[in-house]
Amino acid sequence: MGYLYWIYNIIRNEFVAIPGRMIALIFFVSLLLIPAFTGNPYILRIFTLAAIFAIFAASWDVLVGYTGQINLGHALFFGVGAYSVALLNLHFELPAYLSIPLGSIAAVLVGLIIGIPALRLRGFYLALVTLAFPIILTGILFFFADFTGGEQGLTGVHRLALSRTTSYYIIVLTMVFSLLLMYKFTDAGSKWLRVGIILHAIREDEITARSSGINTTWYKLLSFACSGFFAGVAGGLYAVFMRTVGPSTLELSLTFQAILWTIFGGSATIYGAVTGVYILYPLIEFLNLYPVVSEFRFILFALILIFTLLFMPEGLSRWIRDKIEIHCTRCKGINIASRRTCRICSAPLHLAKTEGSER
Fold it and tell me: What whole-number distance in Å separates Cα of residue 119 and Cα of residue 134?
């Protein structure tokens, strides 16, 4: 009974009392219940790919949204992870639980190789350099076509699991665990990992951060490595789920999709990238089922993004969070917007409105 009461207090104080966390909890529970309501392979495929792309988009957010390092070649990490898993699986018969971590490590190494020379640059020039690397790797894949499959890619990768439902659960749970790690890595208020606040400082003013004694090069490389690792995880999961890997995993369009998903949901949040993926990706896929609408689905996609940037410039998830949550000015605690006093320190939450009404 003691453990149940402890769990009850955690849920009540850390989830029920904070609307954003409650929405996240309901969302993830709903993902786990999807196979119980439908066994349609197409629907499971869409939501499985959405989980993979959520990891990929969030990994881009770690590097760009939190650290401020513009990366237009993020598909490189995804492609390296996917190709590494496929090659290890096909040529060395390594199972998924070994090939995916090794593929992610390969993506980290590539991230460090790119990061060391690229971090001498900033802004537009850094973006151009990162844009060039996927093109270079694509050329290498075409040159060693006998080993990499060339333009045709690689097929016949072993399944992640015998059942599509089992694959779905493995990928969704991997997504949840990956998102939690990325969230703690970038959390400026974390008490046990003080990386997030330094990444925020580098993004806001790198010169000031360096003058205060922070080794900005080391932390930017760490951000590159973390971003590359989880993008490699996403690429590896994509390889074992789709059972095929090709040059499309390195295309610029894949990076742009991650950028659009993250901007739509809200950058520098992690959960914003997840929001963008789970709204936009299934929407485009389901519209493709209707021939009349499918021809205009990308126009609709563009209009949604334009509307979001005009009326919700910080992203959909931030806009919703500002409507349902309020931060206490005294203790910085998060409260539901309808509360009059802080649930932690009992300070008035709507002080400006109260003073205005008294006058």
Answer: 17
